[in-house]
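2 proteins. here.
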Amino acid sequence: MNVRLIAAFFAATLISISCFSQTIQEDFKPSSLNQPGQEYPQVNSQGYARFRIFAPKADSVKVSLGLGGRGGTKLKKGDDGYWTATTEGPMDEGFHYYNVTIDGGKFNDPGAKNYYGSVRWESGIEIPAHDQDFYALKDVPHGNVQQILFPSKSTGTPRRAFVYTPPGYEKEKSKKYPVLYLQHGWGEDETAWSNQGHANLIMDNLIAEGKIKPFLIVMTYGMTNEVKFGKIREFKIDPFQAVLVDELIPYVDANFRTLTNRDNRAMAGLSMGGMETKMITLNKPDVFGYYGLLSGGVYAPDDLKDKAKPKLVFISCGSKERPDGVTKAVTDLKGAGYNAVSYVSDKTAHEFLTWRRSLHEMAPLLFK
């Protein structure tokens, strides 16, 4: 191919890409996470997001989207004082945090509901996923998510956790259940798995389909000693391990109908919650029988050597993360005689659709 043909080929390619990028379907609808009655932000069938902010005296407005989105969308001001813009490309399916920068100050979008992430309450937007049925609110029996406050002598404070109990828990007074202790990521809190992750709906649907053995999920705040972003290596597990193992687990076992041996107790977590899971399960292999790391690192056979053998090791991540490391780790664990399972979420990154899918895949494997 000569130089002119090469030049013509690239010119045609650029024109094609340009035309494609400009073809945005005008079927935008309000995000499912909007405040009641609010029209913006909106999403369309292709995964684009459109924002509209009223700031008549502002000089600049920008929307910064979380991981998996296309950050830094600059809005343009209209004569009516509203700033509007559409993301430069489609976003990953699922949930995203975002905030609005107005003249250098960081704010939340008044049109969207807020979710705790990045150590603050941030706006949230949901890009409908093609497989969203597994976490949809359906006409099936539902469990309950209740807040508990438990004493913590190690920290000198009362602490909070949320407990999911499956459908029928209140009626079946003699039945006891296994428990999954499920941890959030850095900058999030104990509300994340219910609000952003829809863990309760995932469980309700799996139970209604007869795909899992019902169990409790306990979600508590894992940042017992605070650490700033970029300094995760400074995090010490001992304070949180004391809260979880010595205080929360005994409280749950005393106040809920639980099966209290390691074969009926699991621990899993996303991102930093996975790091906590790995540290605690290796320190306390007699407490937990099932391990789950969701975008939260891996286990190596040497990590588990000479310890009580886990009944399951589940490791997952998004396809836009480091899936080769996950699949290799599980291959190595299987080769060493461990029951290990890997899962890679298609076309997602370090984000909640990855973790929703991971919980959906892991739950049926627990407590077998």
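next one coming up
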Amino acid sequence: MNEAYQFTESEPLLRLGAFGLIFLVMAITELVAPRLERPELAGAYKSRRWVTNIAIVLISSLALRLVFPLAAVGTAIWAQSKGYGLFPLLGLPIWLAGILAFIILDFAVWLEHLVSHKWPLLWRIHRMHHADTGVDLTTALRFHPLEIVLSMVWKAAIVVAMGAPAAAVLAFEIVLNGAAMFNHANIRLPKPVDRVLRRLIVTPDMHRIHHSTDPRETDSNYGFNLSVWDRLFATYTRDPRRGDTDIEIGLAEWRGRETSQLGWSLALPFRNPSNNRKRAQ
């Protein structure tokens, strides 16, 4: 019990430290080697977007702590103390349970993302993420508090069902956050490097397609970390129709600078666009 307590106490510091380091590296890389150079990715417009997106993640984090204080790692520790889950039932060694937990959680996040586009109610919440007209590092932080809470409930249910080791859940959470910042970052990777990396993980050029205003492209490349799921389930798009540098980002319904406003963004799930596109058939 004491070990579990120490693990729970150190978990926020580990996550915050990893977040800060990855954020700093990605921010510097965006300045040195940007993929796109547009008004929304520079100057005052960029500053407004960054303030809004960072404020959103702070609000979402606070909401999560208030509504679901255990979070994924705490849930794993609780389930372990109760002996819940498939892995303990099967008597799997800790290393195998950890590997399987990481892979299954990654698929669960991919599936959740897919459903968030197909189910109209969830799309209303998720579209705040897509309303950002300038995809960069901070877009990875731009998820509505409602979506963050619902996502954590989903992950917690998967963690309990598996009986996932707490260390594996912590590793997954750190990698997922880091991968999201990496593949949303406005950075330029050499094409040969991109081709090699995207065989295993989602790259910025691959995920940027998902933020296209073209619904055919938005409804593809759902992965946040491993790229295998989109290939397996035929939701993979290799290149944007307008090219990497001419791709139009955001939602066709909202193209103004209101998308960089905090209040407007938080209220978006409750707004109806003038020309609403149906996301689910």
